[in-house]
Amino acid sequence: MSTSERRRQTEEPSRAPSSGAQLVGRTAELELIDSLLAGPGRGSSGLLLHGEPGVGKTALLDAAAARATAHGMRVLRAAGAQAEARIAFSALHQLLYPVRHDVDRLAEHHRNALHQVFDLARSPAPESLVSTALLALLELTTAERALLLIADDVAWFDEASAAVLAFAVRRIADAPIVFLAASRIGTEDLFRRSGLPERTVESLDPGSAGAVLDACSPGLAPAVRRRLLAEADGNPLALQELPVPLTERQRAGQDPLPDRLQLSRRLEATCAGLLADLPAPTRRLLLLAALDADAGLTVLRTAAQGSAHIDDLVPAERAGLVRAPAAGSGLTFCHPLIGTAVVDLASPHERRTAHEALATALADDPERRAWHLAEAAATPDEAVARALDEAALTAWRRSTGSPAELPAPVGALLSDRRRIAASAAVTALMRAGELSPHPVDRSRRLVEAAFLATMTGQLDQVNRLLADAGQTPDTQTGLVFAAAAHLLTHDGGDVDTAYRLLAQALDHNCEAEQGGWNHLGILYTLLLVSLYTLRPEPWKLLDTAMARFPPEAVTPFRLCYDAYVDPTHKSDAIREGLADAFAGLPLDAAPWQIVPLGFAAVALDALSDYRCLLLRMIERERDDGAIGMVIPALLLLCQDSYIHGQWDEAERLAQEGLDLARAYGYQFWERQLRALLASGAALRGNADLARTRSAETTSWAAPRGMDVTEGYARSARNLAAIGQGDYEEALTQAARIGPPGAPTAGVPGRWMVLDFVEAAVRTGRVEDARAHVRAAQEAGIPRIGPRTELITAGAAAVAADDAEAAALFEAALSLPDSERWPWDFARIRFAYGQWLRRTHDMAGARAQLGAALETFDRIGAEMMAQRAAAELRATGVSVARPDAVTEQLTAQERQIAELAATGLSNKQIGERLFLSHRTVGSHLYRVYPKLGITSRAALRGALEAMSAADQDEETP
């Protein structure tokens, strides 16, 4: 392989010759090249492409070569190489080598001049003679076909070749020759001074960059993909090479990415060529700037300590590596990878010395100083470890103050001016542990890192960190238990064992500093365990734990406790407390403050007023932050979107949460999200999918004692059955969540009063339904909030006798803001319309059913929309629906369907009608699509609607 070929492969992505079809985001450049190739000799002699290394200049030249060959042109090309830059005519030698045998056909003086070029003679012919010889050879070569000349990386062309080629390029405008050259930004050469038209090859736009990354490295975790796109900044070579050094776990998002991405050998070689010729003072300043992106000129000047001056940056600016900093700002590298390469190419001693210098220059900035001291340390140093410790956990370990000053176990760990991600805090604590000379301090820091790791998606690191921490007399045993409990909850859903560990943790810390951060870790973990089990013990333990804190220090937890344990007596106070707590949050509120408040707001159907705060936290923490709290925040937003009829948004949020839960191993949250998606499928009318998802969740939750999770799963089956009109199944599922006559104010029971009552009424258990309504009213469920008030009022109307029903329906539908809950509101209108049609008030029925149908269609409740349309048709209204079933049942199909709806098996039906059970099954197979249903369980509801329509058609 020639030196020039090696040079090309170290700068641009290797690829097979291509016409350019594979080049993403380069349409404009390829069209320009095509226009040149289509008209050689028409006065346009060529084009100079210039751009940063790796931007794709060589790829465009490759595409041009492939297209020229396809057009029947001959292609000659050369690529500059630093190793040959001092050899006269080396580039011309490479360019003309394929046509060297044609030289003998030239005149003697030209032939002799070019022979000296090919022999690389020590004393070659004068440039003027070689220039005219080149023109003669080009004229000879183009006698049979047009020619494309390609000169790549011309900054490394030897001066003689560059001068000769520049001479020729200015004289081939009318010849059948196209000249394409490529040059790196920040370099000067003869071609740029020759007047050749120039085209800057810009970085890829975000969409094209994403397409290139996905093609080169499919399946990256979302956060990893975003980080690589940001680091590559649209550079095609970087997009191809940055993923190369990553481990599979890093690609999947299971291990955090390093603060500074490692460069592949290919990227490092490319960048090394850019930095090699810079003076030593310039490289020193670049290293200081690369090690601290926020370092302004004053810091750089102080850190340089006389070994470099700010004016030493000029060579880097001329080379296109950095931009001149504005007053008070830091130095900006023209591409993020330049800074990474500067650090990678420095020796360990140079890096440590630079960190020490920066630490000295940042004496007034303790957090940044701590990081640099830690990087500079080569042996254990308690002072450095303590500084790093404080930098990572200052916010977490504050124990008193207003809500804006509460401890923050994850998320915003530094000041507004400079923050570190939660995963970086884990790294910082691990490093602080390494630097700790005393076992007690080392143990404490590693235990803290272990607990933080449960929040940052590093669950697989927890056991190792706890093991490395060991056991000392002063080990924070409570936090060890909390970390283990958090791991058990998230990794396998073992809430029973987690509860026992947390009880032990509180016992071990009963004499500890009240409000210490180890207590806060226990408190948050205990809240999670309490939220998803109906057992009272975890809630009681949480209440006991909160009593050890000043009341103002546990506001989010107390509000959450009240919203789930005692919402019927304190709902107004909880709502006021939520408003005050959310209003008091700082812009950078820690996730542990927001998530408990979010759970409390969802329990009272009040999250819509505070969505922006959760979204802001998610955006901040999504990449390398508190992933363990981003996922429940997405779940909460999903729940809120569902109840407000924004089902597409709900499913998008749930899917994002699922992707993160799977990538980081949070099985606990994955199952909660699957339960929500089961309900979503039921709401949309996809009963089979809802039942499948529900069964999967139930089989996971039931053995683990996660009653609330199981309740959500059964709620999905209840909704699926309601959609199909299978009220027996709906009643069975509702009764498993809350027994008849004893509705629960817990979740999800507080939202299922109407589900139970409607199913009971439709199956003839009217007294049970009325008793359930009375019990719900006596339990205070309507007092929880406007939505539960609407649901309970609707249930009362459904269960009422005919003399009271109309007034109760009107009262329910007239409640303030009731239309904020479109699914619940439309269900009540649908039930009202059914009652009005049954009592022969067709005009009123049409109004209610039509409004219900419009809402069901708008939010995507397909099965309920079909039922509403069938009821509306029964009132005499023609309803045109693209998926409406218009086929009528034959007499025998209807007879079989009616018998099947009573619960008879195919064999029993066959015996009555003297048919084989196979024939009965075949008839039912045809009946289902005609009725718009998918199972035997939905026959009763579909036949009732059909019968009602038949009766109304007969009514004059």
Structure, described:
- Residues 1-21, 395-419, 511-515 and 882-886 have low confidence and may be disordered.
- The chain has 956 residues and is mainly α.
- It is built from 47 helices and 7 strands.
- It is flat and about 115 Å long.
- The strands form 2 sheets. It has a 5-stranded parallel sheet, sandwiched between helices. It has a two-stranded antiparallel ribbon with strand order 6-7.
- The chain starts with a helix and ends with a helix.
- α5 crosses α6, α26 packs antiparallel against α27 (555-565) and α41 packs parallel to α43.
Strand content: under 5%
Sheet of most strands:
5 strands, parallel
Characterize the overall form. Answer: flat
Rg over alpha carbons: 37 Å
The helix content, as a percent range, equals 55-70%
Overall mean confidence score, pLDDT: 85
Structural class: mainly alpha
End-to-end distance, in Å? 95 Å
Tell me the number of helical segments per DSSP (H or I, 4 or more residues long). 47
- Total number of strands: 7
Could you give a short description of this structure?
This protein is mainly alpha-helical and 956 residues long.
Key features of this structure:
single chain; 956 residues; mainly alpha; five-stranded parallel beta sheet; two-stranded antiparallel sheet; 47 helices
